[in-house]
Amino acid sequence: KRQAAEEEPFRLRFVADTLRAMSTLPKLTYFNGAGRALGLRVALFKAFGKDGWEDHRIEFADWPALKPTTPLGVLPVLTLPDGRVVGQTEAIMRWAGSQSDLYPKDPVQAMLCDEITATCIEVLNKTPPGAGEEGRQKRQEYAAGFLTRALTLLESRAPAEGFFLGELTLADLMASVLTNMILTNDFDHVPASLVSDNFPKLQAHNDRVRADPLVVAYLAAYPN
C-alpha cells in the first residue's frame, strides 16, 4: 500500500501529461538516454521539427510507476494527438518513418528496410541481463553467438559507400544505434573490438550515419 501511495503522484502526472498531449502533439515516451529510441527520435525530428512533437524522457526510478500504464509493460510508447497510446518499437518506427520519408514506399524496399531494423531490434530484445559475474558470462556467450551472427548479416548487407537502400532510412538509423552502442562501450561486456576488428563495413557505415546532416542536426538539438 505504501509503495502504491508513493507511485500514485507519478501516475497522476503521466495521465495529466497524456491529456495535455491530446489533440496537440505526438509524444514519444522512453528512458532518458539514446537506446533503441534514437532512430524513432530522429524520424520524429525530421517529420515535425524540434517543437512539433514531445520527447518525453523518464528516469529509471520512475519506470515502476509508469510500467502498468503502458500497453505491454515496455518502452517506447507513442501517444497520438487523439490520446491513443501505441506500443511496439517496430510499429511506431514504421509510422514515424512514413511521416518523415525515412521508410520506403516501395514494398520490396520496405521489406529490405524491415529486415535490417527487425534484426537490430531482435538483438536488443534477446540480450541477456549483464549484472554480476553470471551476467558477464552470458553477455560474452551472447556476443560470440547470436550477436556475431546478426552483425555478420548486417555486414553482408552494408554497402561500401552510402546507405543500405541508397538514401538514409530507418535501416541505417537502427544499424547505427546497434553498432554505435558497441563501439562506444555502451553494450556492457561486449568489447568495441567486436565491431572494429571484424565488421569494417558496419563501422564505416556508422561513421556515415553519424555524419549525415539530419543526424548532426538532431544531435545538436538533443545531445543525449
UniProtKB/TrEMBL annotation:
Full protein name: Glutathione transferase
Gene Ontology annotations of biological process type: glutathione metabolic process
Location of the GST N-terminal domain: 26-104
Organism superkingdom: Eukaryota
Pfam families from the UniProt entry: GST_C_3
A GO term, aspect molecular function: glutathione transferase activity
Ranges of residues in domain GST C-terminal: 106-224
Provenance organism: Alexandrium monilatum
